[in-house]
Amino acid sequence: xxxxxxxxxxxxxxxxxxxxxxxxxxxxxxxxxxxxxxxxxxxxxxxxxxxxxxxxxxxxxxxxxxxxxxxxxxxxxxxxxxxxxxxxxxxxxxxxxxxxxxxxxxxxxxxxxxxxxxxxxxxxxxxxxxxxxxxxxxxxxxxxxxxxxxxxxxxxxxxxxxxxxxxxxxxxxxxxxxxxxxxxxxxxxxxxxxxxxxxxxxxxxxxxxxxxxxxxxxxxxxxxxxxxxxxxxxxxxxxxxxxxxxxxxxxxxxxxxxxxxxxxxxxxxxxxxxxxxxxxxxxxxxxxxxxxxxxxxxxxxxxxxxxxxxxxxxxxxxxxxxxxxxxxxxxxxxxxxxxxxxxxxxxxxxxxxxxxxxxxxxxxxxxxxxxxxxxxxxxxxxxxxxxxxxxxxxxxxxxxxxxxxxxxxxxxxxxxxxxxxxxxxxxxxxxxxxxxxxxxxxxxxxxxxxxxxxxxxxxxxxxxxxxxxxxxxxxxxxxxxxxxxxxxxxxxxxxxxxxxxxxxxxxxxxxxxxxxxxxxxxxxxxxxx
Length: 529
Description:
This protein is of the alpha+beta class. It contains 18 helices and 18 strands. It has three domains: 2-60 and 171-245 and 354-390, FAD/NAD(P)-binding domain (3-Layer(bba) Sandwich), CATH 3.50.50; 88-167 and 247-340, D-Amino Acid Oxidase, subunit A, domain 2 (D-Amino Acid Oxidase, Chain A, domain 2); 440-524, no CATH class. A hairpin with a 6-residue loop joins strand 12 (266-270) and strand 13. Helix 2 runs parallel beside helix 7 (170-183), helix 2 (32-42) packs across helix 10 (376-386) and helix 14 packs parallel to helix 17 (492-503). The longest helix has 18 residues, at 507-524.
C-alpha cells in the first residue's frame, strides 16, 4: 500500500511523463462527477489525474438514495429537459452496466382524493415512457396492487401504477468509473487535498496538493483544472474570484432489515405531513427509506449524520403507509446522511430547488456542481466541452460509445458462482472480476451472512482498491457497515486477518482502525443519541 501510494504520488507530482510536464486535465473531487470527467477525458487520450481530499465517493456519491432514475418529481415540476436526459442515461446504464445498475419496479399508490389523480398520473407516466421509447407503466386495481405491495395501507386505496426505473450501488459505480479511467492511463489518488490554486498571468495553471497521510506537499500543474468538489465547490471558486452559489442540502435515510419492512419493489409515497416524495426500496438485502431534504448548516468537513427530527419524519411515512407492521425506531438497522450540492436558485423550500448542474469558468478554473447521479456522463461531457479550445483536435461530443467495455473472459470459478452472483461481480468489477475470483482463499467465494457480498470482495479491496482506513473498506468498497447490525462489528475478528495480511497492519494499527470505525459508526450511522 505505502509503495503503491508513493509511486502514485511521484507520478502525480512529476507529471504524466514523470519528467516534470503538465497534465492535460487535473480533476479535484473523487465523487461521481469527478470520476465521470476523468474517464471521459482519459478515454479520449488526454493525460488526466484526479485527487480527492478524503476517500473516493466519501461525500454525496456514497450517500444517495441508490436510484438511477429520470425523476417523475422533476417532470411534475416542469423540468422536462432534465427528466428526458435522465431517462436516456438510465436506459444506457441499464444496457451497459448489468449487475451494477439493475432494473427496479416503482409503485405509486392511488388513494381516494389524492392529487395527482389516476388520469393526471397516467399522462405523466406516458410522457415518462415516451422519453425512453419503452412502455413500462401499468395501472393495477386495488386487489392486484395489494399483491405488489403487501401490507400497504388499504383504507381508501383505489389501485396503483407501476413503472420501471433502476437501482445501483452508488459507491461501486464511482469505483468502477475510476478503474476504467485507470485502464485508459489516468491517475486517481485519494486522501490528497487540493489546498491552493496556482496561477500564471492571472489564470489557474495548477494546484498545491497536500498528502493527508504524510503531510508532504507539492505543486501539480495542468492545462485545465476542474473543480468537481460538489458541496465544497465554492471554496476553490472563491480563490478564483467566484461567488457563493451552492446550497448544501442534507438528505438522510434509515435502513431496516428486509424481513421487518419487506418490499419487493420500490414504493413511492407522499409524506402525510408536507406531501414530499419519499421512497421505500429494497437494496442489497435490506430496506431503505428516504430521504429528507433540509438545509445543511453544519461544517461540510464533519461527516453528516441524521437528526432525531429526521428519524421521526421518516418513521411517520412508514407508519402512515404500513400501519399494520408496527415499526418503531428500535427496528432501525442503520442510518446515513449525505449533503447534496444543489445550485441555489432562491426557492423557499429545499425540495423546490432545481437539480440541474451548472458550470462556472473563472480565471481559467472550470467548476461544476449540481446535477444528479444518473446524469454524470452528460455533466462530464459538458465540462470537457468548456475545455475544448485547449484541445482542438479532440471531440467531446457523445459518440454513443459504451461507457463500460464487456467484462471479458469468464472462467470456471466465476461460472460456479451461479448466474446472479456472476452478474453482480462482473458488473461491479468489470475486467477485474476474474482476478477477484482467482484471489479468493478457501470459502471466500461464499456470501457474507446477511448480505450479497462475498468474502473475496473484502480481500480484493484490501489488496487492490486503495483502502486507507477500515471505514473505506466497510462503508464504500463494500457496504457492510450499512447492511449489518452494529456496522458489521461481529465480522471484525474475521476481517482482522485479511487486513493484516493484505495491508500489513500490525496489532496496534488494527486496534486504532477498529476503534475509530466503531466510534464513527455510532456517531454517524446509528440512531442519534
